[in-house]
Amino acid sequence: MKKKILALLATYLVCFSLFGQTPPNNQRQPKNQPTNNNQQQPPQNQAPIGGSDSYNSSSSNGSAYGNGLLHILELDGVAGSLNQGGPQSINGILNSVRIAGSALGGTPEFFKEDSKTTPSGGFPKIRYSHQLSDNTFIGIVASLGEKSTTETTTTSTSNRYTTDKITTTTNEWKVKYGWGPLNLNTSNDVSYEFSIGYGQSKTSGDYSNFGLKLPGFSSGSSDGMSGYAIGFGDLRYNITTLSLDYGVAVPMWSWMNWYFRGDTSFFWGTLSLSSAQLGVDTGATAGAYNGLDFNAFKSKDGFFAGASGFTMTFETGFVIKPFETFGIRFGGFYQLTYFSVGEVKGPSISGGQVVEAGAVPNLSSTTDNEQFGNYGGTVGLVKNL
After folding, report:
1. Which pLDDT score is estimated for 11?
2. Which pLDDT tens digit goes with each residue over 196-206?
3. Which residues on neighbouring strands pair with residue 344, listed in sequence order?
4. What is the Cα–Cα distance from 162 to 164, expressed in whole angstroms?
5. Helix and strand element counts for the chain (H, E)
6. Which DSSP string do the residues of 92-109 spell out, in sequence order?
7. Rounded-to-integer distance, Cα 188 and Cα 36, Å
8. 162 CB-near residues (< 8 Å, 6+ apart)
9. What is the per-residue pLDDT for 329?
């Protein structure tokens, strides 16, 4: 059955290549053709199936539809071995904003922090583009049940080491509208896209950490403090996003295209985290860790008051086309992000004292209010329906 369909598509394209270039209106009658009215050409308003305009659109865009309008389905793949595994969602980026106060014992210190997010494998993100006219389209980007794990290792100047892990599940969607869509399987002409998008995402997940304090030395003397701590918790994000999406795809050979695409996203929303940590002192001097630290806070909402910021993603690579309307995408990306947690409210218990979470020193991660970049590889499948 598939072979018959491919054969019909091939016949369809061959017919267009032979007869679609010249509209019937411009056909000339050969000199030796009889002048009998019964043998004249078809009426001028009779055109090949789909019309010449449909041919030009479908041929350059690789669409299988007779009307020439594009319908594109793309699956974004994720491989954990490809460093970050693909451009992260906003919620994945915010995983680094866990409560440093509970994770590190409540004592302000200088820290060095390394963080890495690894998505689970598979094809968690779906992109669908539906062309409305020659120049406009509407698109949907959705991800249901996308899982990722963020591991962060923090080292302090007083020999305090902490490793924490956040495992989250994200459901997100975005609607795009604009000029396009970007056809990664384009055959003859360069394809472009410029669109605006609006979306929302929700994330929930588990938080856990392990901390170790070894005696620190200053001016030749030891602080005498050592111990360990174990923590756990729950976090949730609700994020709204506005984006500008753009891209270009250029045919190189019949079997391969080059592409570039990017987006600039502005986001805002709420972030909430409940965490508890149990600590044990083993050194000569108490104070390595509090016996119990607890935080339950939620950030304010709004672009400036809550968790907010922007991210810019740039992606480029190649599309290998075993068939005219089917491609396998290989590329790389770089993602630059700036964000701030904003104001938070909620109770915090540290060292037996109950205070507002917003008043806890060193409340958020050291990456808060900073720029940082992610990079890695990206793979996907593209099908023109």
Report:
1. 45
2. 999 999 989 89
3. 299
4. 7
5. 4, 17
6. HHGGG---HHHHHTS---
7. 40
8. 103, 104, 153, 154, 209, 210, 211, 212
9. 96
Q: Provide CB contacts within 8 A for 329, sequence distance 6+.
A: 74, 184, 259, 317, 318, 319, 378, 379, 380, 381, 382
Would you list the DSSP string of 71-84? Answer: EEEEEEEE-TTSBT
Peptide bond into 181 cis (omega under 30): yes
* Distance (Å, whole) CA 126 – CA 74: 6
Q: What number of other Cβ atoms are within 10 A of residue 221's Cβ?
A: 8
CB 295 within 8 A of CB 99: yes
DSSP run (H or E) holding 2 = helix 2-19
DSSP state of 142: E
Q: Give dist(CA 136, CA 70) in Å, integer.
A: 10
Compute the half-sphere exposure of residue 142: CA atoms within 13 Å on the CB side of its CA.
Answer: 6
Place of tokens 């793949």: 77
Alpha-carbon Rg for the chain, nearest whole angstrom, is: 29
| Nearest-angstrom CA–CA distance, 313 and 333 | 7
Question: How far are the Cα atoms of 41, 100, 186, 298 from residue 52, in angstroms, in the given order?
Answer: 17, 64, 18, 59
Count CA atoms within 13 Å of residue 69 on its CB side: 12
What are 301-328's pLDDT values in tens digits? 877 777 788 889 999 999 999 999 999 9
Q: What is the pLDDT of residues 81-125, one digit of tens each?
A: 434 444 656 655 666 555 444 444 455 566 677 777 777 766 678
**Based on the number of CB atoms within 10 Å of its own CB, is 112 exposed (0-12), middle (13-18) or buried (19 or more)?**
exposed
Which CA distances in Å does 163 have to 156, 201, 215?
Answer: 12, 27, 18
CB atoms within 10 A of CB 195: 23
How long, in residues, is the chain? Answer: 385
Name residue, tokens 């949907």.
Answer: 140
Question: How far apart are alpha carbons 162 and 173 in whole angstroms?
Answer: 34
* CA 69/CA 51 separation, integer angstroms: 13
pLDDT above 50 (res 34): no
Angstrom distance (rounded) from CA 136 to CA 349: 55
CA distance 309 to 341: 9
